[in-house]
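Good morning,

Attaching, inline, the backbone tokens for the sequence recovery test we're adding to the shared suite. The designed sequence is right after.
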């Protein structure tokens, strides 16, 4: 069967997967102690790493179900990306944050742009 997904949707999926990998890499770097910025007490690092792994897992699951055109997952993905976008501004904002913001905003905007295709024939599966 030929894949009929629009290019913008495929790009959005790719960026969601990239986001999941970024969170997983962040968790690994936290556990390895490879990050040089001040994270507060050492006891916080495992907690932050666990939260990063959870975020990565959620994004990966959303990625899988978005491919199946699951209606609630579309909205959950937009909510998750919105939360990440908001949280990006809650700390000091620098160049790495700006780069990551673009990585998060890209799938958000592309998902919104592919809304009509995503919900068209929502009873049919690819």
């Amino acid at each position: 069967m030929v894949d009929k997904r629009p290019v913008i949707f495929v790009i959005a999926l790719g960026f969601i997967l990239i986001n999941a990998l970024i969170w997983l890499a962040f968790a690994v770097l936290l556990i390895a102690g490879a990050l040089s910025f001040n994270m507060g007490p050492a006891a916080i690092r495992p907690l932050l790493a666990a939260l990063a792994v959870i975020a990565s897992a959620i994004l990966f699951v959303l990625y899988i179900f978005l491919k199946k055109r699951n209606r609630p997952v579309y909205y959950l993905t937009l909510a998750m990306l919105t939360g990440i976008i908001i949280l990006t501004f809650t700390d000091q904002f620098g160049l790495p944050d700006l780069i990551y913001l673009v990585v998060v905003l890209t799938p958000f905007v592309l998902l919104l742009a592919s809304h009509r295709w995503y919900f068209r024939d929502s009873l049919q599966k690819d």
